[in-house]
Specification:
alpha+beta
Length: about 150
């Protein structure tokens, strides 16, 4: 049975593991395949939350991060939104290019794009929506990144 959840997290990195674990457990309860949750969902959600807290909210303890999740047996749709000004996902360098191998940044978004089935950003660049399907049906177009 599909379920919807909304979490309002403090801008504190220590809140990430509990939030991720909670949504993984709720996804299992909804009947989603646990194999794709262990790596794909767990890593992607943790990276998106860390990016929101560190880069979006710039570590400001007065700001919060909102997580909205729709969980079902067939797919998980999760949106992470920070209170920052946003960014241009297309401006994030590809961390796998030789010129960028020693540069910081871009690795989290790279992981998310490769672990999730769909990744989209809102126009402002302060919200990421990620979709993980029970079984991949082929690579879909991915947009932007932090």
């Amino acid at each position: 049975m599909p379920s919807d959840y909304t979490l309002e997290l403090p801008n504190d990195l220590r809140a990430i593991e509990a939030a991720v674990s909670y949504l993984v457990e709720r996804s299992i309860d909804a009947g989603f395949d646990a194999d794709r949750l262990r790596l794909n969902f767990r890593v992607s959600l943790a990276e998106a939350l860390a990016n929101a807290m560190l880069y979006g909210n710039r570590r400001d303890p007065a700001k919060r991060v909102r997580v909205e999740a729709h969980l079902s047996r067939e797919e998980i749709v999760v949106r992470v939104t920070d209170q920052g000004r946003g960014f241009d996902p297309s401006a994030v360098p590809d961390p796998t290019l030789p010129a960028n191998l020693s540069r910081p940044g871009g690795r989290g978004i790279f992981l998310i794009r490769n672990l999730m089935d769909v990744v989209e950003f809102n126009p402002q660049g302060n919200s990421i929506t990620m979709v993980l399907r029970r079984r991949r049906t082929g690579r879909e177009r991915r947009t932007g990144g932090r």
